Amino acid sequence: MNIQAFVFNPFYENSYVLWDAAGHAIIVDPGCYEKYELDELDAFIQSKQLTVVAVVNTHCHIDHVLGNDAVKNKYGVKLWVPTREKEVLDAIPAYAPSYGFTGYRAAEVDEWFDEGALTFGTLTFQAIEVPGHSPGHMMFYHEPTKNLIGGDVLFRQSIGRTDLPGGNHEQLLKNIREKVYTLPNDVTVYPGHGPETTIGFEKQHNPFVRG
Q1: Total structural domains in the chain?
Q2: Average pLDDT in the 191-208 region?
Q3: pTM for this prediction
């Protein structure tokens, strides 16, 4: 599996393009709001001659879904969203203008999914539900390459905020210990903000939750 990160929107959100050897790609958490951001994403996809096959969200806070509609329509693909994130997603149109996103367009969800295996092209991920930052937050673990697309659960020496609607601090800590820290120490975590890290490093150095 190949991975390319893009940093989009005022929240400095990490959007990811993941692709296999055949060039089949998925876009995870497209945060591209401005046209130049979408153009940057598309220029990369065209340069690698990738075929986008799906758009997938880890969770549905506004910074992670700003590009859902534009990306879905540009590539004519389905949007996959965690089932228990529906209420979070539905709330966005009411508050988007207050964050300055007056041009936000809600995208129609094609596939709601729960914890379990997800396959796109030749890439199969284990979708791991890790609520706490948001009610139905999913992380995507690609076991063959030991890569974890983490969203806003675990950051380098930090964790996702829990003060937004649907957040639960103790639940997040418990789930990190029981569902994330049980993965191998050499798994690389690609978070929704900031630099990548590893499970082993966070077990030793994360001030919020030690292994």
Answers
A1: 1
A2: 98
A3: 0.97
